[in-house]
Specification:
Number of helices: 1
CATH class of the largest domain: Mainly Beta
CATH topology of the largest domain: Immunoglobulin-like
Largest sheet: 5 strands, antiparallel
CATH superfamily of the largest domain: Immunoglobulins
Helix content: under 10%
Shape: globular
Radius of gyration: 23 Å
Order of helices and strands: HEEEEEEEEEEEEEEEEEEE
Distance between the termini: 61 Å
CATH architecture of the largest domain: Sandwich
């Protein structure tokens, strides 16, 4: 009964935020923000594989690059504000049978000497399915032979963000450009420019406005973030080739919109790209 209820809640939560699955682990939610008076969060794990697995939980530190990729940051880097010193996690290791769920409790502990701004660490879930020594199988009949078996170890990391004190953020979209790849596939390229002392996170939508007729959406990218270690992020959005779409005229309207299910959507920034000679 408990399992069915949790699975139903996870399914329903898909209306509000995405789940993340890699390997055989499903994690919900995929991003946690502590702001205002919020001090606790619960994460739902489900083993969606066919074997029992052990998952260990730790923290990693990452920087975002301008292309959206990540690079590891040393823990002793004094130029960064890490969140994990202010977080408690329980439990730190779980064993899950196939389809078995588990709730992980995450607690934020505020300290009076915290500077204003954003603290960020990435919670890392690592699976260890087989505790036998790698490269050795018990059913090896010939003791003079060694069988090698490569077993992939999967990991998922999600950002945990703490916002302390007076915070602010704003964004501007710039350098909009239409690009045709492989002669047929349209993309719109742009740059998200971020200012302020916290990161920004939302969805990018692309609307096509023809010279005549109704406008309609031809592109969307969900969950687009710009973290505090960078001030700009390069973005490329694949456009849908819908009937009636003529990218030789009209214009494209790109909007960067907040996607917090608990708040009214806010348009962070908007940009327009006129096509061909249209002005």
């Amino acid at each position: 009964m408990q399992y069915k209820l949790l699975m139903m809640l996870i399914f329903m939560s898909g209306l509000f935020f995405q789940s993340m699955a890699q390997g055989d682990l499903l994690v919900t939610p995929t991003r946690v923000v502590f702001d205002g008076n919020k001090q606790k969060e619960e994460l739902n794990l489900v083993n969606i594989g066919t074997d029992t697995a052990i998952y260990s939980i730790s923290f990693l530190q990452y920087n975002m690059n301008e292309d959206g990729s990540f690079s590891t940051v040393a823990k002793d880097d004094s130029g960064h504000m890490f969140a994990d010193p202010y977080l408690r996690v329980f439990p730190r290791k779980v064993t899950l049978a196939p389809r078995e769920p588990q709730v992980i409790s995450l607690q934020y502990r505020h300290k009076p000497d915290m500077a204003a701004g954003e603290y960020r660490s990435h919670m890392y879930f690592r699976a260890e399915k087989n505790t036998k020594p790698l490269g050795v199988e018990n059913d090896t009949k010939d003791s003079t032979q060694l069988k090698i078996q490569l077993i992939p170890i999967y990991g998922i990391s999600i950002p945990i963000i703490i916002r302390s004190g007076a915070v602010n953020v704003s964004a501007i979209l710039s350098d909009l450009k239409l690009e045709i790849r492989q002669d047929t596939i349209p993309y719109v390229k742009l740059i998200i420019n971020r200012t302020g002392n916290i990161s920004i996170y939302g969805d990018l939508t692309v609307e096509y406005v023809p010279v005549q007729g109704q406008s309609f959406q031809i592109g969307i990218v969900k969950g687009m973030g710009v973290y505090t270690n960078i001030n700009r992020r390069n973005v490329s959005i694949k456009l849908r080739k819908a009937p009636g779409t003529n990218l030789q005229n009209g214009k494209l309207i790109v909007k960067y919109i907040s996607n917090d299910a608990n708040k009214i959507p806010v348009v962070y920034a908007e940009g327009e790209l006129y096509l061909n000679s249209e002005k």
